[in-house]
Amino acid sequence: xxxxxxxxxxxxxxxxxxxxxxxxxxxxxxxxxxxxxxxxxxxxxxxxxxxxxxxxxxxxxxxxxxxxxxxxxxxxxxxxxxxxxxxxxxxxxxxxxxxxxxxxxxxxxxxxxxxxxxxxxxxxxxxxxxxxxxxxxxxxxxxxxxxxxxxxxxxxxxxxxxxxxxxxxxxxxxxxxxxxxxxxxxxxxxxxxxxxxxxxxxxxxxxxxxxxxxxxxxxxxxxxxxxxxxxxxxxxxxxxxxxxxxxxxxxxxxxxxxxx
Length: 260
Known about the structure:
Layout: E1 6-11, E2 14-19, H1 30-44, E3 51-56, E4 61-63, H2 68-71, H3 76-94, E5 100-104, E6 107-109, H4 111-117, E7 121-125, E8 129-131, H5 145-153, H6 155-164, E9 168-169, H7 170-176, E10 181-183, H8 188-200, H9 204-217, H10 222-237, H11 240-250
Parallel strand pairs: 2-3, 3-5, 4-6, 5-7, 6-8, 7-10
Antiparallel strand pairs: 1-2, 8-9
Helix pairs in contact: 1-3, 4-5, 5-6, 9-10
């Protein structure tokens, strides 16, 4: 498919999705949401894709938030619909069945920070700046930020970011758990790709099941979450990949995954 606001590149079994509105610092408008939904639906249905990299075009921004021109004209009902739309797209990204690695190459503010939080793993350039500045324009996060942020960094740290609207540096984001790695700007995409390659080398069913099990069990009581884990472990034990993986280990050879 052709996309108006993003680029899709596939190399071997790894897809790279690049938000491509650099003149607007990759701000999230309706068209970009449509493209994100379409590309992740496309990639989620392709068994040959084992990992997805998500980044922004240019050196300034991963995504600098929502398009303020659009926000300035909407009323309450339209705002609720816009929020629900963004939440649905980010939920699709979080639960697409593939590991999604955000390579945060600059500003990730508002919706951009929320987009990064919907990804499986976040790697930031040392030049990155992250924040939820919605209170500065009379709003609150609308694409999951008020819910994912405290789950990632804790209630107090999340409220500090949400109520001040201040940006945090990449180093501070790493300290509080908002990102998982910080690397030099020139190393960002190579490091993200290397991590994607390492993940893609593992059994695809096991990778997918790990993501689903963590996401589904995160907010459950521990007893229910452990029951879920046991059920998913049992399903994994019945796969061809498990038979191949254990055989390859015992025979001291690389496994050949079938994804079944």
